[in-house]
C-alpha cells in the first residue's frame, strides 16, 4: 500500500494524526492529512478549556471543525481528553473538593453526549501519574478530590457513551522498567480486577534524549495487553525523527495483537508542539522524510 492509513489497515489497525482546526485551511497540510491517515485526534479542540469555557456552557465549534473534517474524509476519531490537570478553563482551576468532582462528571457527560456513538476511543483521563521514581499520582486539583477520581471518571464515561472505547493516556510510560509505567500498570490491573470500566491504554510516546525509545516498549505493550486491555500509541513524535526508531515503534505495535494503531502528533515538523526537534514524518514543504518511508515499509511488512 502507498499510504500510511491503507498500509496499517492491512492488519486491521489505523495510522492516525493530531489535527489542529486552524491549520485545515492550509492546503498542503490538509492534502497530506487527507491522503495519509485514517484516524484523527484533535490536538487541542476537544480539551476542557476549549469545550466548556464557562461552567455549563459547552462550545463545540472548533471540536466539530476537526470532527466533521475527519468524518467527511473517511477517518475515525479519537477523543482527547476529558479529565486532565492541564488546559482546564479558569473556572475549573478555581474549583476544589466536591464541586470540582461534580464539574468533572458534568464535563464528561456534556462532551460525551455531544459525540455519543461517534468516537472510537476516548482518552477519559490524561497524565494522572507523577514523573520520576515515586510511582505516585501527580498532585493536582483533581487528585485532591480523592484518589477515586479516575475510576469515577471511567464509570461516568461508560454510562455516557457505552459505544466508545475508554482509554487512560500518559507519557513516559513506554519503558517497562520505569516507576511511572509500573504505577500505571498497577492501576489498570486493579481496575480490571474490580470491574472499573477501562478498555485501553494510550502510550503517548513523545521520545527525546531525556525519555528515549527503549526496545522494552514491546514488553510494556504486551504486559498491558495481557491485563485484558487494548493498547495504542497515541501521540508519537521522536526528536530528530530517526527512521530506525520510527520503524521500531511501529513494529512494536504490529507485534501486539491488541495494539489498535499508531497516531503521530502532527503532520509536518512546523506543525509540531516541539518543532525545533523536527520530530515528525513530513518536512515543512510537505515532502516525505526518511522516517515516513521507514514507517510505510514497516506497515507493509518490512
Ligand atoms: O490558541 C492560542 C492562541 O490564541 C494564543 O495566541 C497562543 C499564545 O500562547 O496560545 C494558543 O494556544 C496554544 C495552543 O497550544 C494552540 O496552539 C497554547 O498556548 C499552548 O499551550 C497549546 O499547547 C498544546 C499543549 O498540548 C498544551 O498542553 C499543544 O498544542 C499540544 O500539542 C499539546 O498536546 C499535549 C497533549 O494534549 C497531551 N500530551 C502531551 C502533548 C504535548 O504537550
TrEMBL record:
Domain of life according to the entry: Bacteria
Coiled coil: none
Catalytic reaction equation(s): Endohydrolysis of (1->4)-beta-D-xylosidic linkages in xylans
This protein's record includes keyword Hydrolase: yes
Chain ranges passing through the membrane: none
Enzyme Commission number(s) of this protein: 3.2.1.8
Presence of keyword Signal: yes
Boundaries of every GH10 domain copy: 1-298
Positions of the catalytic residues: 235
Keywords: Carbohydrate metabolism, Glycosidase, Hydrolase, Polysaccharide degradation, Signal, Xylan degradation
Protein family: Belongs to the glycosyl hydrolase 10 (cellulase F) family.
Protein name: Beta-xylanase
Organism: Streptomyces lusitanus
Portion of the full sequence shown: 44 to 345 of 482
